[in-house]
C-alpha cells in the first residue's frame, strides 16, 4: 500500500471514518466534530452546539459514523443516535440517549431483498450498537413528497395563471 494523501482532519484523535459515494470521506473526531471531506477539502461539517441549540458545545461527541450514500448515520458518546441527509447534513432523525452509554458503531441495513423486507415502508434503517450490550434498530419514516406528475401539473397551472394575469393587467399583451 502507498499513501496518496495526508491532511489534518481533526484536532486530536479520529474516532471513526467511513467512505461515502463520489470519493467522499466522513470522519468523527474527539474535537466534537463530524466532517465530510472530498480529497483534503472540507465539504461540510457538524458541531452539536450549532445543530442542537441549548446544548453545551462539549456535551456530546460523535463516536461512530456511516454513510449510505443518501444518509449519514451518527452515534455519540452519550448514547444518542442521529440520521442526516448526506449531502446537506440536514438532520432527519434524532433520539437522545437511545442507548445508556457510548454508541460504538452504527450501520445501515443494506438495500438487498432481505433488507427491503426489514425496511417495510420506511426510507432507511440504521442499526446502532453500544457499550450497554444492546443493538437497536432505528427506522427513518418515509418523507412525504409530491409525485412528479402533480408537480408538473402545478407548474403548468402557474404558467397559465401568470399569462392570464399579464393579459388582464396589460390588455393586448399576447
From TrEMBL:
One of its GO terms (molecular function) is guanyl-nucleotide exchange factor activity. It comes from the Eukaryota. The keyword Iron does not apply. Keywords: Endoplasmic reticulum, ER-Golgi transport, Membrane, Protein transport, Repeat, Transmembrane, Transmembrane helix, Transport, WD repeat. The gene is Preb. This is PREB protein. GO terms for biological process: endoplasmic reticulum to Golgi vesicle-mediated transport; protein transport; regulation of COPII vesicle coating. It is a single-pass membrane protein. GO terms for cellular component: endoplasmic reticulum membrane. The chain crosses the membrane at residues 146-170. It is found in: Endoplasmic reticulum membrane.
Amino acid at each position: 500500500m502507498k499513501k496518496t494523501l495526508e491532511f489534518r482532519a481533526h484536532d486530536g484523535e479520529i474516532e471513526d471514518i467511513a467512505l461515502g459515494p463520489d470519493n467522499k470521506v466522513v470522519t468523527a473526531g474527539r474535537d466534537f466534530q463530524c466532517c465530510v471531506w472530498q480529497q483534503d477539502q472540507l465539504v461540510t461539517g457538524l458541531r452539536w452546539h450549532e445543530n442542537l441549540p441549548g446544548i453545551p458545545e462539549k456535551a456530546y461527541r460523535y463516536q461512530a459514523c456511516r454513510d449510505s450514500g443518501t444518509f449519514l448515520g451518527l452515534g455519540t458518546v452519550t448514547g444518542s443516535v442521529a440520521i442526516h441527509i448526506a449531502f446537506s447534513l440536514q438532520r432527519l432523525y434524532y433520539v437522545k440517549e437511545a442507548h445508556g452509554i457510548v454508541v460504538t458503531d452504527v450501520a445501515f441495513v443494506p438495500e438487498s431483498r432481505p433488507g427491503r423486507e426489514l425496511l417495510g415502508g420506511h426510507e432507511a434503517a440504521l442499526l446502532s450498537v453500544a457499550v450497554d450490550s444492546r443493538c437497536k434498530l432505528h427506522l427513518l419514516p418515509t418523507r412525504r413528497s409530491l409525485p412528479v406528475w402533480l408537480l408538473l401539473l402545478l407548474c403548468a397551472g402557474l404558467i397559465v395563471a401568470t399569462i392570464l394575469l399579464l393579459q388582464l393587467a396589460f390588455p393586448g399583451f399576447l
